[in-house]
Amino acid sequence: MVKINGKDYDVSGMTITEYLTSTEYKKELIALERNEEIVPKAEYDNTVIEDGDIIEIVSFVGGGSL
Amino acid sequence: MNNDKLVIAGHEFDSRFILGSGKYSMNLIEAAVKDAGAQIITLAVRRANTKERESILDFIPEGVTLLPNTSGARDASEAVRIARLARELGCGNFVKIEIMRDSKYLLPDNYETIKATEILANEGFVVMPYMYPDLNVARDLVNAGAATIMPLAAPIGSNKGLAAKEFIEILINEIDLPIIVDAGIGRPSQACEAMEMGAAAVMANTALATAGDLTMMASAFKQAIEAGRKAYLSGLGRVLGRGASASDPLTGFLRD
Predict the structure, then answer these.
(1) Does residue A66 lie in a domain region?
(2) Which of A36, A59, A66 is the closest to B46 by Cβ?
(3) Alpha-carbon distance B184 to B135, whole Å?
């Protein structure tokens, strides 16, 4: 299992690009962290998601704490 | 006044109003930029949704400097991760460090903030730490490489004004970095007072977002901040310890 944004998915073996495409994330709007390390966008094509990975996918929103 | 710039790590700004984090709407961004003159706007980083097609960045006018914050971070290591993700999102290297362990009062964790400041400054970030106004901590933040110090005036979103006035004043007097008063400013008069004291800038959000007329309040903040800045630069008149001092000559001419 792979944990992405706090939820478990069975996506090990996919590249990051394949995962983002299949889930309709827009690459231009996000940044991605894998096991607490940033994955640069240039490496999405050849980074393969492995079992046990913890991935965070983030974007900007307005504001923060109230 | 024309050459009076706010300088943060070599970047110059004409405006001393910063739109803080909190309650956002497109109307607020527009009012902050057009009516309050904001040139710096805070953004937060959050988990993305799969089918997002629009970015908040599309709604922020060109020329505005984005200041991602680390809100949501509970310790230094989370703040560092959020800052790196923000930089990867491609909006420059400014970061406002916000680290909170406490969700009731949302007070910043000064100790973790110093740690995160040091790490991020070493990585080339322009680090603007949000802090509880404490002189020793401010000195540590300077040594850690902070670009500004951002003490809270009162709890975030409270609109309570300069509750920490005395302690912010100590920072202004003792710290050789821009002191930006952050959080709690609820009224233009409070922003003005902070600027009169010598604050370099004021950050606000809730004061505008919860006002009856957003646009008018944004413009009131702009005027208040400019007035306070001018008063500071001119040098405030002295306050008498006691008694009075005539402002007109007291000749008592009718009696001479």
Answers:
(1) no
(2) A59
(3) 19
Count of domains observed in chain A: 1
Interface of B with A in 75-114 (CB under 8 A): 81, 84-86, 88-89, 91, 98, 100, 106
Which residues in A lie closer than 8 A to residue B50 (C-beta atoms)?
23-25
Considering only alpha carbons, which residue of chain A is nearest residue B49? A25
One digit per residue, the tens of pLDDT, for chain B of length 256 reads 568 999 999 999 999 988 876 666 777 777 778 787 888 888 888 888 887 777 777 778 888 888 999 988 999 999 999 999 999 998 889 999 999 988 888 899 999 999 999 999 999 999 999 999 999 999 999 999 999 999 999 988 889 999 999 999 999 999 999 999 998 999 999 999 999 999 999 998 888 888 888 889 989 999 999 999 999 999 888 888 898 888 877 777 777 6
Strand segments (E) across B78-213: 94-97, 126-131, 150-151, 180-181, 201-204
Give the DSSP per-residue string, B60-79.
SPTTPEEEEE-TTB-SHHHH
Q: Which among B45, B50, B69 is the nearest to A58, CB-wise?
A: B45
CATH number of B6-234: 3.20.20.70
CATH number at residue A43: 3.10.20.30
Largest CA distance in chain B: 89
